[in-house]
Amino acid sequence: MRLIASYKGEAKELAASTIIRGDVYSYQFSGGSVTQVRDHTAVGTKAKEISANIFGSLMESRKRQLVGKAVEVQIFPSTKKLTDLPDFADLDDENTGGEADRDYSSLPGTGGILIEGTNRIATPISAVELDERSDDADYPIGYVLTHELGHTVLDFAAPDLEPKIDELRKSRIAAQQDFLGTDSYTRSTVDEYWAEGTAALFNTPIAELYINEYTGKWLTDNDAKLLAQLKSVYLK
Ligand SMILES: [Zn+2]
């Protein structure tokens, strides 16, 4: 989409640069109540850095698909579950389905959802996965949020690409080709294939073991078609 300004019969294309409005919130639980706060700690700063990196790198045409939406990252403390967040409470009894079928309540994060009745797209993340001083994270710091924001981007800024990316995934399976990181997980759905591709593009491996795979170089050498799709979304 291009913005055209018209003045006295003359049309002029406007320079377009869309700023995505976004916020990072932490949730504090005390007694029975939950409070939403702006997080200025190292954890909040890390979340902001990752989100700004990903959303700031979106191609203009992709940002446009988010016009009118507010993008949120919601951080929950390590003592709480994802489904303790008010906006995710109704997933409490649900399972994710798929290859790694788990309870939502056990997850360190999940892809963004549009909160019903609002313009807010919220992505939840456990504080522990952003805390460089903690040894309790299940994954290298920053991986989970990068992966989950990859889901958020595909679902809300690039849903039109899904069939094409799924075709790539299926043809790799048919040709018995290698997938990024944990093969069984990465190849399981178009969503995981894309989210892991996003993690690779932003150099955040699922495990230290795979540090050489989560790079643009690995994608160039091994899955150039996925890289081309990633680069049609992220300016990177
Ligand atoms: Zn995922």
Topology summary:
Layout (H helix, E strand, L loop, with lengths): L3 E4 L2 E4 L8 E9 L2 E6 L3 H15 L3 H5 L5 E7 L36 E2 L5 E7 L16 H15 L4 H13 L8 H4 L3 H12 L14 H7 L1 H8 L5
The structure holds zinc ion.
The site of zinc ion has 4 residues, from helix 3 and helix 6.
What does this structure look like?
There is one protein chain. It is built from eight helices and seven strands; from the N terminus they run E-E-E-E-H-H-E-E-E-H-H-H-H-H-H. With 236 residues, the protein is of the alpha/beta class. The strands form two sheets. Strands 4-3-5-7-6 form a five-stranded mixed sheet. Strands 1-2 form a two-stranded antiparallel ribbon. The longest helix has 15 residues, at 42-56. It is globular and about 55 Å long. 37% of the residues are buried. The model has no long low-confidence stretch (mean pLDDT 89). Zinc ion is lined by residues 147, 151, 192, 195.
Tally the beta strands: 7
Uncertain segments are none
In DSSP terms (H or I, runs of 4 or more residues), the helix count works out at: 8
What average pLDDT do the residues reach? 89
- Placed side by side, the strands forming the largest sheet appear as 4-3-5-7-6
> Which ligands does the model contain, each kind named once?
zinc ion
Overall domain count: 2
Tell me what portion of residues adopts beta-strand conformation.
Answer: 15-25%
Query: Whole-Å distance between the termini?
Result: 21 Å
